[in-house]
């Protein structure tokens, strides 16, 4: 390995940048890979044209096949479908019109079933839309699982790409070392021998070696192009993974946050609607009751007066008149007493109702502050 290191450092200025790159590759290799570089370098025979043609071909084939695999994965993916499903989900959520609960009914509508009918219609619409949303969620869940599988698959592809790239590094570095040895040692020795001998055969050997070295250099260039493909593939794989992860996060947010929140708000809207309508209905009942009480009171007064008038008509005994008079006085007194008690009770009820209203408001304020 010391020989390899020395070979990398003994270069001219023109090739200094290339040597630095090769040194970085060498240092990044494991001891086993460095040993393999040395073995491959020593086994290279550039005079064997078939061996040179096949040099690094397996690593290049792996890169080519791998690129086809990645491309097929990209073609097979339909990320746009996930976007369509999410768009459909939002459209279904927006179909349910909560404002329809707040439409005004007439008096009879409020008293007799208009509220119930509208709430029932709204709930039926919600249940119908909910079925579609559940189907969409199932599709999203399937898409999420597929995306998670794709992410795991791309992790494996990324590691395989790194493996192929390191394989190319081994062949490129071994070839570069061999080419440096040919240019710096073998060719100068052949040139020196040809100059000393003057033999045309020796001169031809120099030309042949220069031609072989040139061909081998082109072969190494092809391997470097394949390596660049592997380098470009790595960020492409990570970009695809990143896109998949974004889609997974959007799907999970829709399933775990958006839909449950939407359902909760629908339930709250229906509950508040029913409470509001119940309060209004109770108010109508109280008003009607008060009207009936007032009318009955007036009727009682009228009837009492008419009865009194009728009792004065005709000739009757004094005792009867006295008894009638006493009964009337007692009736009036009792009526006044009852009315007084009624007023007092109503005042107590009104005071109690006021207290109950204040307590309810206080509790509602406490709930709002939580």
Automatic annotation (TrEMBL):
Coiled-coil blocks: 339-370
Domain of life: Bacteria
Keywords carried by this UniProt record: Coiled coil
Family per similarity comment: Belongs to the TelA family.
InterPro entries: Toxic_anion-R_TelA
Membrane-spanning intervals of the chain: none
Protein name per its UniProtKB record: Toxic anion resistance family protein
Pfam families linked to this entry: TelA
Presence of the UniProt keyword Coiled coil in the record: yes
């Amino acid at each position: 390995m010391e020989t390899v290191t020395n070979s990398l450092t003994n270069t001219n200025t023109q090739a200094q940048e290339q040597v630095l790159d090769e040194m970085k590759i060498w240092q990044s290799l494991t001891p086993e890979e460095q040993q393999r570089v040395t073995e491959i370098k020593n086994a290279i025979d550039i005079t064997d044209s078939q061996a040179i043609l096949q040099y690094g071909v397996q690593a290049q084939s792996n890169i080519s096949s791998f690129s086809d695999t990645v491309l097929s994965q990209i073609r097979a993916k339909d990320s746009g479908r996930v976007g369509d499903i999410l768009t459909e989900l939002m459209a279904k959520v927006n179909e349910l019109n909560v404002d329809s609960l707040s439409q005004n009914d007439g008096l009879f509508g409020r008293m007799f079933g208009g509220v119930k009918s509208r709430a029932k219609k709204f709930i039926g619409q919600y249940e119908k839309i909910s079925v579609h949303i559940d189907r969409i969620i199932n599709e999203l869940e399937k898409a999420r699982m597929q995306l998670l599988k794709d992410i795991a698959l791309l992790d494996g592809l990324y590691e395989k790409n790194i493996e192929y790239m390191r394989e190319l590094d081994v062949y490129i570095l071994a070839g570069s070392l061999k080419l440096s040895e040919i240019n710096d040692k073998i060719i100068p020795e052949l040139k020196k021998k040809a100059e000393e001998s003057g033999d045309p055969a020796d001169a031809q050997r120099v030309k042949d070696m220069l031609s072989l070295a040139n061909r081998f250099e082109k072969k190494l260039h092809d391997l470097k192009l394949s390596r660049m493909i592997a380098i470009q593939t790595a960020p492409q794989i990570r970009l695809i993974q990143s896109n998949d992860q974004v889609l997974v996060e959007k799907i999970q947010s829709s399933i775990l946050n958006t839909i449950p929140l939407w359902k909760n708000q629908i339930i709250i809207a229906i509950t508040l609607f029913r409470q509001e309508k119940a309060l209004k209905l109770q108010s109508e009942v109280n008003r009607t009751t008060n009207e009936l009480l007032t009318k009955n009171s007036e009727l009682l007064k009228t009837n009492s007066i008419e009865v009194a008038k009728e009792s004065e008509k005709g000739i009757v005994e004094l005792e009867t008149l006295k008894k009638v008079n006493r009964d009337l006085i007692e009736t009036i007194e009792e009526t006044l007493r009852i009315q007084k008690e009624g007023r007092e009770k109503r005042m107590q009820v009104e005071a109690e109702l006021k207290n109950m209203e204040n307590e309810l408001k206080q509790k509602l304020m406490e709930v709002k502050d939580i």
